[in-house]
Amino acid sequence: MKTEIISTVNGLAVSVDGKTVIPAAYMSYLPDKADYDGFIKAGYDLYCCCVFMGDCTINELSGVRPFARSVWKSEDEYDFSPVAEAIKKVVAKRDRQVYVILRVNLNAPAWWREKYPEELTLMSDGKRYMQSVFSERWLSDSKKFIGKLDDFIENSEFSESVIGYQLAAMQTEEWIAMCSPDGELDFSEPARKAYKTWVKNGGNGAEEPDFPPFTDFALRTAKALEYLEFFNEGFASAICGLCSFAKQKTGDKRLIGVFYGYIGQLPANRGHCAFSRVLESPFVDFFASPFSYAGSRQTAEDWFYHGATESVKRKGKLWFMEADVRTFRTKKLYETDPGLMSGEHTVKYFDHPVFTGPKNLSDSLAVMLKAFSKVLISGNAFWWFDMWGGWYSSRQMMTEIARMAELYKKSFYIPTESVTELAVVLNEKASYHI
Hints:
Strand 6 and strand 7 form a beta hairpin. 45% of the residues are buried. The chain is globular and about 65 Å long. Helix content is 34%, strand content 17%. The strands form four sheets. An eight-stranded parallel β-barrel has the order 4-5-8-11-12-13-14-15, surrounded by four helices. Strands 1-2-3 form a three-stranded antiparallel sheet, with no helix packed on it. A two-stranded antiparallel ribbon has the order 6-7. The chain has helices at 36-41, 81-91, 110-115, 136-154, 189-202, 215-219, 222-249, 275-280, 309-314, 333-336, 344-349, 361-378, 395-411, and strands spanning 3-8, 11-16, 19-21, 24-27, 46-52, 72-74, 77-78, 99-105, 120-122, 128-131, 162-168, 255-259, 286-290, 318-323, 381-385. The chain is α/β, with parallel strands linked by helices. The termini are far apart.
């Protein structure tokens, strides 16, 4: 099997052994509550399934328990049965070939954190969180895991169905840095070691380079700006290294991608401001992001893109928009699956307005159309993200979702010309000064 990105009459698509697969997909965090049958009937051929290397939460703030059983149980013990179960729900007993991209969550498991506390992100108050992105041990272990995952897929009944890996890590799986509310960064020993090496090799050449005082960041001193450049380059290095390994391990057989490049949305202390380096990597085939959550996703707000999607297309790469569109069928996670909650603060987290959809069907259809229209006219890939399941469970919504799939597929073969009169230029290092 060979999977690659190809140009059509109008836009980029995926080719699997010469067969064109239009990049419109569906996924859910909870496969048991997902509507795979409905979306296959609606004409969708591409699906995303989640793989969890570890057993910790997808971020350190919400308190949500893992959405599935972890794979990496101990140093030399792996259980890939959750992966097989998730894929089987998509591909088994189908009347046509459908394809899967695995979202591979590489956040370290709890046992690893307990065994290697010095490899975790460290704040100045002494609190430790998920692995440091500068941890060479974590990066090495993640490569080992990716290798074993690919071996499992290659030797399984799903080898011709899995066409890509989306390597996900850090906060909310989106390669967002773990930082304190006031913007404090990683003070761990791996970060300190990496910074000293970086400065000596190309920074200011200091004899004993160390982190700038935190007050420097508020003042945006030269040393603080240098540290921010190092910090973002560290995220790019981790991503490029893992993607390079994955691409070579698969023999260029599968697409490799990441959530990254939110330079139109995130400040520099979140690690996304080395986007151009990742964009240039020959080992990264696609990027992804949700629509902006600015304004709590009010219906009258523009759900703008996080990054420079046109630049991605010009490199022959895909940008998948995650259409996690809330509807009148959307329930809070604690109403859908209380077992995933781990404390009162978790309930408060999901009471935020951004987790609430419109009150009725007509407004729900309107926001779905808004998200789809934006993807259609800009020529980006997308997936419907039915987070907890049941968000699109109405005859009218599924009818529209099927019509959208039909229109989207046709659009790839209809020549169009942009009439855009404005350009937005994003400078990834400009946010260092904000």
